[in-house]
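Notebook entry, structure prediction.
Reason for the run: the old model in the group folder had no record of what sequence produced it. Starting over properly, with the input documented here first.
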Amino acid sequence: MPKSVADLNKDISTKTLEMEEGVSKFNSAVMQLQAENQEKAMQIQSGVAEIRSGVDEEIKNINLYTKEFYG
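New structure, fully documented this time:
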């Protein structure tokens, strides 16, 4: 027996809700990954800044020693 329009509408509504829940879960997962990646990027930037600072300090020391050695 064919379904009534009301039954079809109910089925469509149920499927729509299921799809909306799936999209919501997917969006939550994407936002979580973005936050994790942003945190990792910030950690990398911090590490690079520390390395750059260390390199700058070593260059400064080399320049001082060079001036002292060569006058």
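Summary: The radius of gyration is 30 Å.
The old model has been moved to the deprecated folder.
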